[in-house]
Amino acid sequence: MKGNRFFALLLIFFLAGCAGKENLIVLTPDANGTVGAIQFKNEKGSVVLDEPGKAIIAKDSQSPPSASTPIADADTQTIFREALSAKPLAPQSFILYFDFDSNNLTAESNKLIDDILQAIKERDSQDIPVVGHTDRAGNPDYNFSLSMQRATAVRDLLVNRGIKSEFIQISSHGEGNPLIPTADNVAEARNRRVEVVVR
To answer: Global pTM?
Structure first.
């Protein structure tokens, strides 16, 4: 089985058949409604699943996989109830912006801290990357240090609100990974940021 981009949830169910077990494979959208694709391949052929609500039945390696066929959402929910109930929440990303040449959050970004804390609580997260960035104004070495200060400031805010520091991984990209590409020495507010991912 070869997968392309796994945006979607892949569900596999083993069906008892006369000639042995069959695999029912269903592709469903992720929380944002995005669907990836998967190719199922064996010695007798291959088939691609790239639409939500479609399924294939795969038998043994000597039988070609079936062409994709529609499956009702209600049937998917019934067959895969246990797997779906155990499915973790998708990671959630937040972008926090900073004042120029500072590790002080903008007033608007300060309001997002409660949303980040809520996402951590909902996921019971212990994996929270916090990545600092700057714009391209100033010296690259200084900007690398400043972006680390920004990541550290966000970590400290979260720790002060009850998140364990060992759950947070901080890193710094300096000016090297701009959200908005600019020429050197250009100030760009949207590049003065920290990205927080709650997994």
So the answer is: 0.66
